[in-house]
Amino acid sequence: MSATRSLYLVARYRAWSIRLPRRQFVATLACAAALLALALAALCLGDTRVAPPDLWRALTGQAPGWLNFLIGQIRLPRLLAALLVGAALGVAGLMLQTLARNRLASPDMMGINDGASFAMALTLLWSPAGLLGPWWLALTGALVTVLLILVAAGGIGSQGYRVVVVGLALANLLKAGFDLVLATLPAMHSGGLFVFSVGSLLGRGYAVALPAALGLLLLLGMLLPWVRTLGMLGLSDDLARGLGVRLPRVQLAALLIAAAMAGLAVSVAGPIGFVAIAAPIVARALAGPASLPLAAAGLMGAFMVLAADTLGRLVAAPVEIPAGVVTGMLGGPFLLWVLLGQRGRRA
Amino acid sequence: MNLHVEGLKADYRERPVLTGVDLVIASGEVVAIVGANGCGKSTLLRSMARLHRPAAGRVLVDGEDLWAMRPGDAARRVGLLPQFPQAPAGITVEALVGFGRYPYQGLFRQWSREDEAAVAQALRETDMLDHAARPLERLSGGQRQRAWLAMVLAQQTPILMLDEPTSMLDLGHQVEVLRLVRGLATAGRTVVMVLHDLAAAARYADTLVALHDGKVLAHGAPRSVVTAQRVRTLYGIDAHVIAAPDDGAPVVVPVVA
């Protein structure tokens, strides 16, 4: 059937087959290309501008020592951290939006980021040196938040709707908890926590980026077996169950993996807002309705965080604007545009 | 494939809705479940389609307990079209019908030649080939319902369960859909549907199951099931039951008050 060939790309070998919506494939490639271009620009631009040939030499270790250090030890790890944070937020956001069938469902809205931040903040109360806790604390905070949401909502419930509403309520409580910690800390420690709470990639190196990379890979691996089933969640619950989807189980797995990803992102860069909402919306718009563009959402998230971080570094140099502030300034209007612009199109 | 329902009891919000239903449905039959609002029609269908867990009793497909199967195995035996199905916004008919292949797919079995053939076959059977590339939202009510039927057909189950497949349609589209459903049964499938329109049920089903107070009040050919007395029991109204001029199917005409 020729219509099938136009909508999907299919590769078959014996009993195995892989199918990808053609438009999603193109969208993913486009996102990857845009991200690559941005990454190269981000490595070149800054207080010290690096010409592309010098960048190449630095990446291959043939540049003078200071340049090797600037690119290899400062800009590259920070870039890596930005990509990881963005990818984790983009994928987590897409999963939550799919789960709740609501474009406003995201780790920021549902209190997952707040739970992760709160867990990090709590560690400061017991740290005389004013050091933020290790990365896995944010992840734990995110997971505990999701469990709290599930308990309070009495399970996933129909259509994933209740989970979002309960999360919304819980988010405020957790924000208040975070602010309480911020208010009780000595001034010399609260400054660091404040920067964290805005979401920033300042000074992130391999020590942060490498464990996060490993964690993200692990989570993506855990996600893989669920991808096919997640694609079914666009159907109403009865339909999905009628087709043999194990409904509460899929939703639970997706919710936990999404929360862990968001927690991971928060542990690296603090709660950078809006990316988890905006990246999946853009990815979906590019990839078309018949697909679950996980890769495109991840790439788009990475693009957004990297763009925000790079802009923040450049716009008011030598002062740095934290990435979370940039995403907030651009994300607010974007969200308004999406919500108001789609009003006419929705039935 | 035969469908047996044995001693089925089901509760809805902790209130008993079905209080002991026994049914034998033969292969290739078109069965309509009728009854008043709230009599348990939908609950019965949902129990048979694994959407509503019964409090007691069994649903057997060729002797196998449907509720004891793995979800995927059950989904290859019984297909379901709920009353208000929802699909992702903007989806095309072809992509929608492709969802029906889920029970046959796996992580690295995403789109086999069988999947492709089943989708094409389902589109052909519902006469939707020409609309395959159109978004669902742009279709007329009847076409949209045919697209949903195609999705369930692509599931290639011997048994189809349809919950009020004509409830949102005007008379023309109702007839269009019910004729299609009859055609599906001639191809060897068993169709069980909930219809609240008694006239349409009597006209297009081989067998009627009249539910009343959580039990089967009558079960059989429309002519034997639809009597003035039963209409009174089921719906609490006085009505004449007359024979359709062509095939003698019962037609219910309420008495003028």
UniProtKB/TrEMBL annotation, chain A:
Residue span of the signal peptide, if any?
A: none
Keywords for this entry?
Cell membrane, Membrane, Transmembrane, Transmembrane helix, Transport
Name where it mostly resides. Answer: membrane
Does this UniProt record's set of keywords contain Membrane? yes
A Pfam family of this chain: FecCD
Origin superkingdom: Bacteria
Spans through the membrane: 79-99, 111-129, 135-156, 205-227, 294-315, 321-340
Instruction: Report how it sits in the membrane.
Output: Multi-pass membrane protein
In terms of CDD domains, this protein maps to: TM_ABC_iron-siderophores_like
Q: Which InterPro entries match?
A: ABC_BtuC-like, ABC_transptr_permease_BtuC
Do you know which SUPFAM superfamilies this protein is assigned to?
A: ABC transporter involved in vitamin B12 uptake, BtuC (SSF81345)
**Location within or outside the cell:** Cell membrane
Q: Which GO terms describe its molecular function?
A: transmembrane transporter activity
User: Which Gene Ontology BP annotations are present?
Assistant: siderophore-iron import into cell
Extract one GO cellular component term from the record.
Answer: plasma membrane
Family, similarity comment: Belongs to the binding-protein-dependent transport system permease family. FecCD subfamily.
Q: What is this protein called?
A: Iron ABC transporter permease
Q: Which organism is it from?
A: Chitiniphilus eburneus
Lineage here is:
Bacteria, Pseudomonadati, Pseudomonadota, Betaproteobacteria, Neisseriales
UniProtKB/TrEMBL annotation, chain B:
Q: Which SMART domains does the record match to this protein?
A: AAA
Keyword DNA-binding (UniProt): no
GO CC annotation: plasma membrane
Q: How does it sit in the membrane?
A: Peripheral membrane protein
Q: What is this protein called?
A: ABC transporter ATP-binding protein
One GO MF annotation is: ATP hydrolysis activity
The family classification in the record reads: Belongs to the ABC transporter superfamily.
What InterPro entries does UniProt report for this protein, alphabetically? AAA+_ATPase (IPR003593), ABC_transporter-like_ATP-bd (IPR003439), ABC_transporter-like_CS (IPR017871), P-loop_NTPase (IPR027417), Siderophore_ABC-ATPase (IPR051535)
